[in-house]
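User: Fold this, then the next.

Assistant: Folding the first:
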Amino acid sequence: MSEKKNLSISDLSEITNLSTATINYYVKIGVLTPPKKINKTRAIYSEIHIKILKTIKNLKEKKINLNGIKEIINNSDYSDIISNKIKHEKITINDLINNSDISQGIYEKLVDSKIIKLPKISNQGIPYHTLNDLALSQAVGEILSHGVSIEQILKNKDHSILSKSESILLAEYIKSIEGKKNRKNISSVIQSFDIIRKYLRRLELEKVLYRK
């Protein structure tokens, strides 16, 4: 049986045994990725949302509150308390692109520049990414939506973790925000910028810790 790609909130509620009110609340507070809007009154969810909701339920069973769950899903800073299955949830390339509002071309640039890791290959020979990769690509999609260019985002690979360098790059992002700058869109860019930086620092840390 093939996986259902486009799900209504009612479908998602039935599959996960969560109320539509709970699902909407998770989206509102940023725990669950927003659905793809088809028009003003209709939005569709995907298999990714099922996986994330299952992850949320698993973490709640571990007595982790929603703030902690949000940090885990978006940043994976608390990976020591996540099971190996959750950390390495398999997400296809198409699902990653579709749930990040980025194009195939942007995705390829991120992979080519090594900002996002090359996909792994499953036992069935299918390329896949992890929830960490999804969080990174969603952050890129969010920053792009504010008018920051992909060329500016690709500079992340060239900057060190020094605070001064990060501040200069972040200032460029903020200056590139289209329209009137306000606390909300500046905060959104800063939060997305932090996710990208944390992801890249994590990759460098892994190299240092596990260097042979």
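Now the next one, as you asked:
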Amino acid sequence: MRVGIVGLGLIGGSLGLALRRLGESVEVRGVAHHPNGVVAAQQRGAVDRASTDLRDLADCDLVVVATPINQIRPVFEGLAGVVRRATIVTDVASVKRPVLEWARCLPEPSQFLGGHPVAGKERSGLSESDATLFRGETWIFTPVDGQELTPFDEWFRLVRGIGARPKILSAEAHDRQMAFLSHLAFTISTAYAQTVRPVADSELGGPGYRGMVRLAEGDASLYEDIAATNRGPLVEAIDSFADVLRDYRERIDRGDRVGDLFRRGVHATR
């Protein structure tokens, strides 16, 4: 099976490494934005071959678009004149509704299946890629209503083969879930860092402080685009968090006992 990966950063590079470890008849072809990305991917062993030209994916059976979300639409437009109608196309973006709209330009939109591996690290880039990144993690797929999933069986098999667990959700449900589970977490981490650093000495901070600011070390440009494309659900998540935080503030300010609030938080993590 010939698998093309467009975008050879953390996710694309990790996917290439993982697929090549399967020891099956999978040929991994990569497309990078810059020539130095091609060289780096080959040196890291993330691909069998790579280039900067989408036309090199013309005879691939499957193409995975692993670019940042702001690059997906032009990549789809480029693939539209390259891939065959039978080629399976998928992506890895953490926002799905706009991606499904953009995929309509592909030669056979029914051969596109939105995807999102819920895996990652604080730091991005090919140098952070890891063949074990997806082990034990959920890989969400977001078919459109009534879409036939049989053509994607081989892709599901490969996803399981690299250790991930496929799960089906609607695009709307996915985007709302990710707003609360992922995008809100980054927003809170950065807001916390902005609140604390002007008034506190970070060298005095222990594990709690480091844990809270860990996500703020992520790619701000990436999350800026995520916030723009998942604006409604993220605003809902921020408002919900603000309501809870306001309750904490008011009760602490009144001198109330707040152990029950803290215990609710502890129980919510279980």
